[in-house]
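Let's study my pick:
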Amino acid sequence: MGWYIAVLKKYAVFNGRARRKEYWYFILCNFLLSFAIGFVDTLTGNFNSETGMGLFSMFYAVLMLIPSIAVGVRRLHDTGRSGWWMFLALIPILGSLVLIYFFTIDSETGDNQYGQNPKEPPPGGLIV
């Protein structure tokens, strides 16, 4: 849950880098919360079978749109790619598969044009 909160603290931060751990824990927590909110929608009668969402689910999805894109962009930066690669998500199936591959590969070692490697200690050796 700490990684989920960390992403929310960087709500609209599109610069820098995000580790695989940060990205995937956010995705996991987001999925679990979406499932729980969908269950609440069903219990309260807010679920709409035409849209596949309820009132609370829709509100949560809109609220999480920007942080989800931001952490995806930072994850791409960590692999040495531009955030513009996120537009691959607009290509059905193939685009999503390519993005999943990019999100699962390891970080670029050392610093890159998007910042310092989040896995490595900061200069001076102190981890704060």
Q: What stands out?
A: The two ends are 20 Å apart (CA to CA). Residues 20-44 form the longest helix (25 residues). The chain has a mean pLDDT of 92.
